[in-house]
Amino acid sequence: MDERNRYRLIGGIFMLALGAIFLPMLFDPAPTPQPAMDGQAIAEEAARLHQMSDIADMPMPQIPPSDIQERVAALGEVVDDAGFLVASGTRLGEPQLLPTAEDADVFAVQLGSFREEANARELRAKVRESGFEAFISAVRKNGSQPVEIRHRVAVGPILERDQADALRKQLADTFALEALVVGMQP
Questions:
Q1: Across the strands, what pairs with 110?
Q2: What is the pLDDT of residues 33-87, one digit of tens each?
Q3: What is the pTM for the complete model shown?
Q4: Does residue 61 belong to any structural domain of this protein?
Q5: Which CATH number does the domain housing residue 130 bear?
Q6: How far apart are CA 156 and CA 175, in angstroms?
Q7: Segment 161-182 mean pLDDT
Q8: Higher pLDDT among residues 185 and 15, named by residue
Q9: Domain limits for position 95
Q10: Which of 4, 85, 119, 183 could make an SS bond with 114 (beta carbons 3.0 to 4.6 A apart)?
Q11: pLDDT at position 143 over 90
Q12: Percentage of the chain surpassing pLDDT 90?
């Protein structure tokens, strides 16, 4: 088949497809507008439909009892309005860094503590680019007015104290920071 006949054939198929799509639209009746219903008419129609349905005869499903209100109340006792744990001051859901690491089972190496979260994010990004798993843990200092939030950057968790000490030295040398080994509660 030569090129000219192929174009005519494709054009003819295209025109038939357009006709099959748009021709039925021409013969469809125009949609009829629905009359506006006032509140009384809506209520009457709803009552009529309700009487016609079998739903009115069906028993209502029983909702199982839930203790969610008690659990929320219990959580409110350990978490303040800003989302920080009352006991430790750490934001709920973030790892808790404990100041003393002697009796801890899990350790972390704290690299810095910042008032500005952007500074903490910047240090965390540098540490992560170097291949270490760094995280930020926000802590709220109780008793200070106004309330002060510090964003601590740390690497961890580490299970052995000697590994934590070795990592502290490596991180302090790499980033020229005064790093500390702290206890960690994930």
A1: 154, 180
A2: 777 767 777 788 777 777 666 555 666 677 788 888 888 788 777 877 777 777 7
A3: 0.57
A4: no
A5: 3.30.70.1070
A6: 16
A7: 87
A8: 15
A9: 75-185
A10: 119
A11: no
A12: 10
Distance CA 184, CA 154 (A): 10
173: phi > 0 → left, psi -120 to 50 → alpha, else beta; which?
A: alpha
Single out the residue of 178, 167, 183 nearest to residue 96, CA to CA.
183
What DSSP string runs through 53-85? SSGGGSPPPPPPP--HHHHHHHHHHHB-TTSBB
The count of domains in the chain is: 1
Task: Note the Cα 164 to chain centre separation in Å.
Answer: 31
In a domain, 52, yes or no: no
Q: Are 108 and 154 in contact (CB under 8 A)?
A: yes
Residue 6 lies in a domain: no
Considering all CA atoms of the chain, what is the largest pairwise distance in Å, rounded to the nearest integer?
Answer: 90
In a domain, 154, yes or no: yes
What are the tokens at 161? 């104290």
Element (H, E) at 164: helix 161-175
DSSP secondary-structure letter at 131?
T
